[in-house]
Amino acid sequence: MSKRDEIENLQQAFALHRSGRFAEASKAYRKVIKRNPKQPHALHSLGVIEAANGNHGEAAELMARSLSVEATNLDFMQNYATVLCQLGQFEAARQVCMRGLAINGGHAYLLYVLGGTLFKLGRLEESLSAYDKLLRIEPNHVTAITERSSVLIEVGRHDAARADIERALALDPNYADAHANLGLLCMKLKHYNEAIAAYQRASALKPNSAEPWAIQGYIFTASLRYGAARAAYEKALSLDSGLTKAWLGYASVLAALNRPAEALKAYDRAIELEPDSAEASLGRGFNLTNLGRHEQALAAYDKAHALEPGLTGLAGSRLQAKMHCCEWRDFDLSCTRLIASIEADTDAVMPFDSLTIPSSLEAQLKCSRSWVARNFSSTAQTPWRGEDYAHHRLRVGYVSSDFRRHPTAYLTAGLFEGHDRSRFDIVGVSIGPDDGSEIRARLEDAFDKFIDCAALTDDAVAESLRAEEIDILVDLNGFTIHARTGIFVRRPAPIQVNYLGFAGTMGADFFDYIIADPVLIPPSHRHGYAEKIAYLPHCYQPNDGKRHIAERRFTRVECGLPEQGFVFCCFNNDFKIVPGTFDVWMRILARTPGSVLWLLEDNQLAAANLKAHAAERGIDPGRLVFAQRMELPDHLARHALADLFLDTLPYNAHTTASDALWAGLPLLTQLGTTFAGRVAASLLTAVGLPELIAESTEQFESMAVELATEPSRLAAIQGKLARNRLATPLFDTKRYIRNLETAYTQMQRRFREGLPPEHIRVPG
Description:
The structure is a single chain. 55% of the residues lie in helices and 8% in strands. Helix 8 packs antiparallel against helix 9. The chain folds into four domains: 3-214, Tetratricopeptide repeat domain (Serine Threonine Protein Phosphatase 5, Tetratricopeptide repeat); 262-375, Tetratricopeptide repeat domain (Serine Threonine Protein Phosphatase 5, Tetratricopeptide repeat), CATH 1.25.40; 394-535, Rossmann fold, CATH 3.40.50.11380; 557-731, Glycogen Phosphorylase B (Rossmann fold, 3-Layer(aba) Sandwich), CATH 3.40.50.2000.
């Protein structure tokens, strides 16, 4: 092809390109390139078409070839830098911009691309400098003004950012990106209503854009309006089903709405779109944990850790999954690191995680305070305005996700039924699923009014409770699965109480009291609690004296136990079995020939790991016997096959301890240093068996061996428990209710006298 023919063919290709006949232009450019592989304008123009078609990799290769021929062509450089940005190759794009600006330092478009590129690289001050230089050349460049506001928001110069946004909107009131940046700024400032309004204007201006809807979902989530968040994410996904961050946000909202199975599917979809998303793997792990699928959860957390080991919240969740699976590799180191992150406030550690590992009251308080500060907005609307409702009957509302087959339900059913209706009006507020069980039906009947709020937002629940004029609102969840702390942030009631569900402080000023007893929280421990202590005289834990024990008589053979030999047992959840506890148990087995340890099998991996741990400690794995879950009356009945319940530390048996004592099985515990590690001691004190509380690990071990090898001593303990079981305060439901009601009336009296919350001690 002659030079003249090349020029004519190139001009024809340009004409096709200008007229929008891109496919024909592409063929024409390729024809020229075939004859002259170094024709720069054909190469570059074909690259422009490929970029428009979304083929950015090919476009970049073509443009690079064109620049190898015309290295100083600024038009080539600006297009090439743009394509490199689209490929996420920001450093390469920056270098192209810098080469061009070395030729012409006032090239507006290259300055514009450089500003955005530096922003993506995190070089924020340099990004601002590039935008500033551009705007001195083109002061009304609306896009640059708007993008500079993004950088200003990121560096925390909020007033300057707002000035840029207002300037952009003055130049173009219908510029959607400026409205979106206003929303971003307001979101940073936690002005959520203004942020939503700004993003709604952006959505109206870009009705087919999923992005503003996805961000609205994020803001609604941040302000705890989960119903609105769900609708916003669903709208975003209807516009762009491939938007990964919308799937991530949607999944988090479904999880917050206690829909873990649906949330899991959403996280799976996010992973399909972005296999290397550590955030998606972390979320997947959370929901598998909530579904009790701990082995799969651990695999998800391991993947997240491999992708991004410093991901917020991962360390604690991964450690918990390992504990549920009794996978103890680097356990001590993991605990040390988690406590260090709490002390330094460098990670969002879930407060429950801090209870389950060796930690101090101070660390647990700091963890809860940090969690509240990170997750709950101080700008939430407060429906209660300081009124004293002056009811004839004190109105107490109990909020729980666990009005179903759950330990909390079985402990509290008798309490709710037994409240003095001449003085108390009792309202049940369910924020969890209705499982259709007998205990659910019993609980619904136990309240004067039962409200199912599971489908309502935190705002709606708070408004509903305000309308009910609740005097004392009791949180039975605390920081546990399916908790709705956001309801209490809004303070819908004059007095708010942390009770039963969470074995520690909420670390928040929106809780006034925590129900406890002198064993759980002695005066020297009060500094570890944000709440004032409402001391019951005996034990903080309620018990239902109507709990049925099946008449069925189990045999050792049908439960997999040897017909002869001492049976130690522990029916606690797997996560409570930590290496230190297990070491003591194995030493006890070693010192009591023929004995076995009967445990509850929660998952197969945990059982296999525990057997392996036993073998490592020189104990025949066959001496560990695993029980399957069964209905509570039968479970209580099979306790008769065991001789002694061995407790765990740092997190004691709680409901499982009262189950054992109710079933007549003695329990041996060691007194811990935090609430979670002192519950069993509280129960034993209330049932009149303080001699089963060890003060040290050595004493715990020696006491267990003595009880296993001295039948008369064990028989004396068993006889004492049988006599005390119905004669001491622990299982005296009526006495317990009277004491709790006295605590409530003292709280109310202080409020009506205009006094702040203070420690309360109910006389015995």
